[in-house]
Amino acid sequence: MKDLPAYKNPELAVTERAKDLVSRMSIEEAMSQLRHESPAIPRLEVQEYNWWNEALHGIARAGTATVFPQAIALASSFDPELLFTVGTAISDEGRAKYHQADKEGDHDIYKGLTFWSPNINIFRDPRWGRGHETYGEDPWLTSRLGIAFVHALQGDHPKYMKAAACAKHFAVHSGPENLRHSFDAVVSEKDLRETYLPAFRDLVKDAGVEAVMGAYNSVNGEPACANTVLLEKILRTEWKFKGHVVTDCWAIKDFHEHYKVTKTPLESVALALERGVDLNCGSCYYKLGEALAAGLIKEEWVRRSAERVMATRIKLGMFDPKENNPYANIPYSVVDSKEHSALSLETARRTLVLLKNDKNLLPLDRSKITTIAVIGPNADSVEVLKGNYSGTPSDPITVLRGIRLAVPTETRVLYSEGSHLFKDRVEALGRAEDRIPEAVSVIKAADVAVLCLGLDPNIEGEEGDASNEYGAGDKQGLGLPECQKKLLDAAVLAAEKSKTPLIIVTLAGSAIAFGEAEKNIDAIIHAWYPGAQGGTAIAELLFGDYSPSARLPLTFYHSDADLPEFTDYSMKGRTYRYFTGKALYPFGYGLSYTTFSYSGLELPKTVQAGESITVTARVKNTGTRSGAEISQLYVSVPDAGKGYPIRELRGVQRVELKKGKEQKISFTLTPRDLSSIMEDGSRVLRPGTYTITVGGHQGDERSNALTGTNVLTAEITVQGDSVAMEY
User: What is the DSSP string of 127-183?
Assistant: First the structure.
């Protein structure tokens, strides 16, 4: 080891190694490493490296890989353990693909180990096109799932990172997509600290996430990628973040082109580098040399950022012998393996939400069906399985194919596309609604009809990726595209006339509202973008091969009339925590094929401020079959609903029970779980009476009515003085 340069010595601290490596670089070489396409430095044995890679729900855009359900679907599992298992499979495949590409000298985009995932923005408005990349509307659930995913990506080795995760987009970012390069998100200190920052804080402080990506938008008057409060005060000083900050792609040019906080590209790169942006996705940092020559940046800023990004590469083992790094031995055979395909299927099963099941129509009895109609623009779509930021599935199972494989060979499966996804006709030379008559015909000829509606990532997604009449990937409303509304209305009428039971499967990354047609639909399954095995999971659910357990990670509203303006970042009237109206389907809601009851809620009647609380209850499967229940604990603080959230999720537990079996469940509430964010953004544990509920849903009036069950409720008094807490 004595003959090795310090940066190649595995026995030294990462910071020492990074400092040594950067000290050996010329300033031009150091600057070159701050671009997402970092060139090689042969004399230092630094390989070229492209930092841009994606792993939102599988290794994306790099060829064949296991495609898991989209992030919003993963969130509907309410299961951090599942997120960890999925994340582990993803990082295994990432490592295997990286080393294989490296052997072939392939250092192209999407081939690295720096994954710009997860997206932990809050899905505050269901019109946002990128909401399906998130874990939903709740900060606490987003945090728990994000922590599990980061731990899975980065691994637990004491010296090496398996892969580098990235928390994005920092911060206060959730549309509108068509304004994201010029929009100023104005947010109060309370909403900032209560809603938009908690998941970032937890991923930095509790999960040790390696990277943070800045957002495109401005926050309270400063671009997020040059925001003094976010980057300097909060991230680096308050949270002590030691990793690297990367821009969203080409965000720096917005400084001078849209926000006008600078006048030239040179001033923009200087501002970004000074504020602590270490890595530029885009091309602006090619101008760092000019900025240095003009006296706009300091050499010490360049070397500071270079040390941060090289520290990441050192942690990933890029300067050490491969035999030292256990992650370098993961074989290529894990990629798209049978085991990972099976995991994708199991994950899809756990993420399909049963929203409606009138008269227990579902599950269907295979033996009693001779003809089944499968209809709709999403019935045989591979794109709708994948979601955005996706890999290439080797054997995708659409809903139509899944149903065909699930029924006996003698069962007739009738198929009709029914309508285009968003255009008024399928055939360009045909008349409007050219496929509806066929759809009506197959409904009338069938014993049961499955209508597959919704969206797909081509019309719901990121500005630039999705281009449609909904507005750069965002939705103008919550309803289906007009052509699908007409198909649905025709299907409902045909089903009524022929007495054919009608099941709707919605495949979309966000909330869908059905309008008046909803009351005439017999059953509704919300399937999200369910991954490569989604069609199998949906078919199995239809025929009762397992019981559904997933819950909604966001509120389904009746219409956008229930919502504030899309551009309003205040949380008043938004999400289950502040919405005072009647939801179509509430956050935390989802049906099962069996039933569960709760009893024996126990917790102290009083507690001193600063002490933790143990809450226990019993849950029993009172139905006729085995199933899994998502037990949920909510807290309502003193004065809930009067400037404070109505209730907040503070505990989840997945419980699998055979029929008739019972299990004790336990939750721990810390002082932080009971604390409140005040108007000035401070966190305070206040004395007073707190309401605790435990059950299979929120316990709001709508959930009670939809499920026919109530939750257990108890009060606890926190005694003592108010306690100021660290944010």
Answer: T-TTGGGS--S-HHHHHHHHHHHHHHHH---SS--SSB-EEEEESS----GGGTTT-
Place of tokens 């194919």: 401
At residue 114, φ and ψ (nearest 5 deg) are -105, 100
Residue 461 is encoded by which pair of tokens? Answer: 């997604």
Contacts of residue 346, Cβ cutoff 8 Å, sequence gap at least 6: none
Task: Give the pLDDT confidence of 593-636 residue by residue, as tens digits.
Answer: 999 999 999 999 999 999 999 999 999 999 999 999 999 999 99
Q: Which of 687, 564, 584 is nearest to 637 (CA)?
A: 687
Q: Which residue has the tokens 């792609």?
A: 249
Name all domains of the chain by residue range, CATH numbers in brackets.
37-267+314-334 (3.20.20.300), 352-544 (3.40.50.1700), 596-725 (2.60.40.10)
With CA atoms as reference, report the closest residue to 142 among 171, 163, 113.
171
Cα 164 to chain centroid distance, Å, stands at 17
Q: d(Cα 303, Cα 292) in Å, to the nearest integer?
A: 12
**Residues catalogued as catalytic:** 248, 460
Report the alpha-carbon distance of residue 85 to residue 522 in Å, rounded: 35
> Taking the CA of residue 414 as centre, how many other CA atoms within 13 Å lie in the half-sphere pointing to its CB?
20
Strands 723-725, 683-685: parallel, antiparallel or unpaired by DSSP? antiparallel
Share of the chain above pLDDT 90, in %: 98
| Tokens describing residue 701 | 């009036």
Cβ-based neighbour number of residue 221 at 10 Å: 12
Q: Is the pTM of this model over 0.85?
A: yes
